[in-house]
Amino acid sequence: MKKIAVVFALHLVAILLSVAVAGHSQIRRVPAAQVVVVVVEGVVYCQNCSFRGTWSLESAATVAAARVGVTCLGRKNQVIIRRTASTDAAGFYAAGDFYKGDPARACYVRLLASPEAACDDPTNINYGFKGAALKDEGKRATAGLHDIMIYSAGPLAFQPASCASMQ
């Protein structure tokens, strides 16, 4: 658990630095009290062949260097934020940006790519293929003048394209 906290802290620092540089002009246009940094976190797995066709992640292994996409829509359903993130060695990802609105209603996470040729077929576990909804689990932090709201998406998974050779 301590390792995950350290990894998360490192991800958070990297996100805040990239957001501060990329979103600087956006900060000036919107009052700071209405803008928060939204961080989305989650884990990506490779589903065990024994559970193919189900939403079970029993005996699943995490996928390092998998890519996910975080998309947030505006009031008129236009894409206003699109970020990609890669998982670390433990299969954990975190992506963030400045956002004004309710991320749980307007944002979603999708599986993009797996570096593992033996496990690169996206599943729809937790709607990772269509777009996984975000959950507000009450995690909050502050960095400088910015409030940070941390949301999570359910675990997402790839599966082997063929299980015959793996059994």
Automatic annotation (TrEMBL):
The keyword Zinc-finger does not apply. One of its GO terms (cellular component) is cell periphery. Keywords: Signal. Residues 1-22 form the signal peptide. It comes from the Eukaryota. This is Non-classical arabinogalactan protein 30.
